[in-house]
User: What shape does this take?
Amino acid sequence: GENVEQHPSTLSVQEGDSAVIKCTYSDSASNYFPWYKQELGKRPQLIIDIRSNVGEKKDQRIAVTLNKTAKHFSLHITETQPEDSAVYFCAASNGNQFYFGTGTSLTVIP
Amino acid sequence: DVKVTQSSRYLVKRTGEKVFLECVQDMDHENMFWYRQDPGLGLRLIYFSYDVKMKEKGDIPEGYSVSREKKERFSLILESASTNQTSMYLCASGRTQYFGPGTRLLVL
Assistant: This one.
């Protein structure tokens, strides 16, 4: 089956700096790669996603890149703000199941 | 706005009890999922369903069963709860995973 690895497990950045979270996957059949943000005590929520026919997608301060050949994808957050502090999960899906990374706890220091 | 609800936010049960966790979605989604979330392990798929009365095992189905009698409702059943099933249980629906608020289950 699919194996998704996510790094780093914790990340601290100064407010205004950029944050990058990286994930790798193993199954070339995976074709959908969403990212979720989970604030403390709340449910995970989709923040951005990318499909395998696209290399990069951007939504305001958030961007995701996908390298199908290397089987890795990354989340980029620019101009970080304290409200970006949360746990972020990457996932890979083949259209049926979703396989999640183990999460990155991001802390933005004011 | 998609709404996914779960029957309980917090639940305390005793070892050996039968436990029912219910999830309801209002967006006519075909796909529904049950995960458990544990620190350092991320979200692990227990079971999923892509149609009424259909079910598929996920990565950790042992000790669990599911029921999908109606499209909007997906139930997770712990036949005989054990302490190692203490966890946060998250239901999700749809092809992009709309999550419910979670049920924090403590098995004593």
Summary: The interface with chain A takes residues 31, 33, 35, 40-45, 48, 50, 56, 58-59, 90, 92, 95-102 of chain B (CB under 8 Å). Chain B has a mean pLDDT of 94.
